[in-house]
Design a protein that fits this description.
alpha/beta; seven-stranded mixed β-sheet; 10 helices; 7 strands; about 40% helix; binds S-adenosylmethionine
Amino acid sequence: MSERVDLYSSYSNFSEQVLAAIRKETFGHDFGQNSWITADEYDRFISWLRLEPGGHVLEVASGSGGPARYLGQQTNCYVTGIDANESGVETATQSLRESNLSERITIRVADANARLPFEDNTFDAVTCMDSMNHFADRQNVFREWQRVLRSGRRAVFTDPVVISGPVTNDELALRSLVGLFLFVPPGANEQFIADAGFQLVQKEDVSENAALVAGRWHDSRQRHKDALVQIEGEERFEGLQKFFAAVHKLTREKRLSRIVYLVEKPA
Ligand SMILES: C[S@@+](CC[C@H](N)C(=O)[O-])C[C@H]1O[C@@H](n2cnc3c(N)ncnc32)[C@H](O)[C@@H]1O
């Protein structure tokens, strides 16, 4: 197995000027995302959830907390985020406290694979952006979402690595340099969804956005190489560049596809 390269330790210095500049060049609207979502895309996914002000949303794998804050501000809902990365949760909690949003938006450490620390029927929606591929026990993840969601409510998630063409072992190794990855063939998510008792409402191929974002992220990082090497060191910098190049190529060629799924817990 190749050595892993750490992508998510960047949460501890997320507000560094160079990282913020790269996010701006990559995403246009930087709301703190560390994935392949852009604001226009997230707005569209959020609109599918039929949320009302005052509702309560669970964001699984909340990263820096930026997407939870964005979601809370767009919808006037309460948002609870969970992430396994302690530095992400710390960064998020501090920034929410500083902006007086910590009553409405809270982030805590939790493993998405495990039993979630919430009562049954707690949430009006679940969101999970570009993170499902990191959860080894996908069946249990869906069962837990089903348990904590209220009846008739929806979850939206993206899976950025559905195998949809020929991929070599070296390409898979590069694509998964940053941690644990579960690659699935077409149809597998649909089966997990059905087995957990969800109805699939909609699915769409959203690979193009990931190809675009990964390409921009790679190129922006290259332009800021000197400053980044100060933070990451030469080896990690080069490793991450290979990772972003692999995401760009495999997604653009649709050999790994990024699919968004909207599911509903039956009323
Ligand atoms: C690609 S990032 C996406 C973060 C965020 N959703 C966003 O759009 O910016 C994937 C996230 O999954 C988190 N993660 C990985 N494994 C996890 C697990 N087992 N439970 C909870 N979070 C996990 C990582 O810490 C990381 O923040």
